[in-house]
């Protein structure tokens, strides 16, 4: 039997093997990476089984069906991933959910407790100063909100890289962002406190990198909090329509 006609199958197997290695360096959480690798492994196993069945029952399973099978599964996976069904962010807290009490440190090095925001409407985002991905865009959108929201609305940027984001680093970042002192606060704290607040309080995604060179994955959403500390909405900072909706909702809370 000539193996030349089965070259495409072997190319697929090699490509899927390489994909598993590539996923390990993607800027996604460890859990998501494991799930993706398991999914690709299942495709490889199914491909091998179909290949074997084709060799045994060539008339029942033509080669083209074996070759197209991975395309079908990868297409289905892409649909699920990009629609948020499989690896989408958990539903953000809203409505009756409240921000838990927290004790952090602001960019001036002073303690910053949640009580300082009591009775005020505020918008939170989640960034880190060395981020070269989504954070610059998030911060630029927050700077725009600073100019468009009523002056009574406070802004809070919470660092998801507290190990490196010292008050001094945050102060420099705030200055570069054009933050209004006393209104736009930049907070840091212990890793445990940050994780508890982001994941447990706001119910947004957050995963630390496994090593010094690995990225941090975090939510790109804004959270709107009312005067009683209730989370009134979560808005995609990369979507201008969602940001406009945030402006409207915040304005209604103030007036």
Overview of this protein structure:
With 255 residues, the chain is an alpha+beta fold. The chain has two domains: 4-82; 103-254, Glutaredoxin (3-Layer(aba) Sandwich). It is built from seven helices and nine strands. The protein has helices at 7-23, 30-56, 63-82, 135-148, 167-177, 191-201, 240-254; strands spanning 103-106, 111-113, 122-127, 154-159, 184-188, 206-207, 217-218, 221-225, 231-236. α5 (167-177) links the parallel β4 and β5 (184-188). α2 (30-56) packs antiparallel against α3 (63-82). Residues 81-91 have low confidence and may be disordered.
Quick rundown:
This protein is of the alpha+beta class. Helices cover 45% and strands 15% of the residues. It folds into two domains: 4-82; 103-254, Glutaredoxin.
SSE diagram, text form:
Blueprint lengths: L6 H17 L6 H27 L6 H20 L20 E4 L4 E3 L8 E6 L7 H14 L5 E6 L7 H11 L6 E5 L2 H11 L4 E2 L9 E2 L2 E5 L5 E6 L3 H15 L1
Parallel strand pairs: 3-4, 4-5
Antiparallel strand pairs: 1-2, 1-5, 3-8, 6-7, 8-9
Helix pairs in contact: 1-2, 2-3
């Amino acid at each position: 039997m000539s193996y030349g006609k089965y070259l495409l199958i072997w190319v697929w197997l090699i490509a899927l093997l390489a994909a598993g290695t590539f996923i390990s360096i993607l800027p996604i959480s460890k859990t998501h990476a494991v799930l993706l690798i398991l999914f690709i492994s299942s495709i490889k196993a199914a491909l091998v089984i179909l290949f074997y069945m084709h060799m045994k029952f060539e008339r029942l399973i033509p080669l083209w069906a074996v070759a197209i099978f991975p395309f079908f599964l990868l297409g289905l996976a892409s649909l699920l991933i990009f629609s948020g069904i499989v690896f989408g962010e958990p539903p953000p807290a809203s409505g009756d959910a409240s921000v838990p009490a927290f004790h952090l440190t602001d960019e001036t090095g002073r303690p910053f407790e949640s009580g300082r925001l009591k009775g005020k409407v505020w918008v939170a985002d989640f960034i880190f100063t060395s981020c070269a991905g989504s954070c610059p865009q998030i911060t630029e959108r927050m700077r725009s909100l600073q100019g468009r929201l009523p002056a009574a609305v406070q802004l809070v940027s919470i660092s998801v890289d507290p190990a490196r984001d010292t008050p001094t680093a945050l102060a420099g970042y705030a200055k570069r962002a054009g933050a209004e002192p006393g209104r736009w606060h930049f907070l840091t704290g212990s890793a445990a406190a940050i994780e508890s607040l982001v994941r447990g309080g706001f119910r947004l995604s957050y995963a630390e990198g496994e090593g010094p060179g690995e990225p941090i994955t975090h939510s790109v959403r804004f959270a709107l909090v009312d005067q009683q500390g209730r989370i009134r909405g979560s808005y995609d900072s990369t979507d201008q329509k969602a940001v406009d909706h945030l402006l409207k909702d915040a304005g209604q809370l103030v007036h």
